[in-house]
Amino acid sequence: MYIVIYRFKVKQNLDQDFIKSWKGLTDLIYKYEGSLGSRLHKEKLNYYIAYAQWPSKTVFENSGGKLPIEAIKYRDSMRLACEEIEVSNKLEVVEDLLMDKIHAEK
Q1: What's the distance, CA 91 to chain centroid?
Q2: Has residue 43 been placed in a domain?
Q3: Of the candidates 20, 34, 3, the residue with the CA atom closest to the CA atom of residue 81
Q4: Hey, which bits of the chain come out as E strands?
Q5: Structural domains counted in the chain
Q6: In this structure, what CATH number is given to the domain that contains residue 78?
Q7: Distance between CA atoms of 42 and 67, rounded to whole angstroms?
Q8: Are the CB atoms for 53 and 35 separated by under 8 Å?
Q9: Would you say residue 72 lies in a domain?
Q10: Contact at 8 Å (CB) between 53 and 34?
Q11: pLDDT tens digits for 17-68?
């Protein structure tokens, strides 16, 4: 598995516009480009971190050409809502211990 971590500095009062655009674009990337989805985290006021998961580095590097035209709307809207967008890390997964359910106490 391959992970790409993004950091966003969102303009004042544009958090909801950013989140809506991020969700729309992420959904299209999942549907059309083969990603495994993404999680968005709030770091602090106006700063967000997104963790995008891909089946492999190759799938990630070959992505982008299959998106429908509506992806441009989401991408442009997301960029307009941000002061900064950066890729902070690209990582290969070594071990994965994330769980899909909560472990019940006995």
Answers
A1: 14
A2: yes
A3: 20
A4: 2-10, 38-44, 47-54, 82-92
A5: 1
A6: 3.30.70.100
A7: 26
A8: yes
A9: yes
A10: no
A11: 999 999 999 999 999 999 999 999 999 999 999 999 999 999 999 998 999 9
